[in-house]
Design goal:
- By secondary structure, the protein is of the alpha+beta class.
- 33% of the residues lie in helices and 23% in strands.
- It contains 2 helices and 3 strands.
- A 3-stranded antiparallel beta sheet has the order 1-2-3, with helices on one face.
- Strand 2 and strand 3 form a beta hairpin.
- The longest helix is centred in the C-terminal third of the chain and has 14 residues.
- It is globular.
- The N and C termini lie far apart (36 Å).
């Protein structure tokens, strides 16, 4: 499997949680140039909520 980490060329979200006892980690890159990283289940959840509200497909919805 290739590297799934998002980049400016391949924007998106990448979330990892290797086991239930380890904290989640995540990274996000939007085509608008915004990026974020998070460590810990709560922080990753907030990053995902921010992405959904402000980036990714949210840009397309605002353009309609």
């Amino acid at each position: 499997m290739g590297d799934l980490t998002p980049t400016q060329a391949t924007p998106g979200l990448h979330i990892s949680k290797p086991s239930p006892k380890e904290p989640a980690t995540g990274s996000a890159v939007c085509h608008c140039g915004a990026s974020a990283t998070a460590t810990g289940d709560a922080q990753v959840q907030r990053m995902i909520q921010g992405w959904q509200a402000n980036h990714g497909s949210a840009h397309a919805e605002g353009a309609k």
